[in-house]
Amino acid sequence: MGLYSHPIVVQLKIKPELQDKAEPLQKCILSGFFANVARLHPSGEYRSLRDDHPLYIHPTSVLACEEPPQWVVFNEVVQTNKDYMRDVTVIDPEWLHELAAHFYHFGTERELAAKRARLA
Question: DEAD-box helicase OB fold domain spans which residues (predicted)?
């Protein structure tokens, strides 16, 4: 008889009155997975911030049944007919500047173009 490992899925739904207590946990998750951030695109799909790759929240996620959050961080991508994010957590985009300024560039397109020109 073999042993099989089944992933344990934990879905947490945070009550609005407890949101301020959840923020440190959300920031902790973001600090570990800062490269896995996605933003809701006007088309209804998510786009990864790193490479603009189209992504979707996995249908088993509690977030799939709610109004889609604007910004999320995820642990992994499962590829089927679409690329689905799993282990998704809602984030505030302001936290990216605080926790991952070394990874992301901040500013308007004009400001970023000027920075690139100075570096060239």
Answer: 25-102
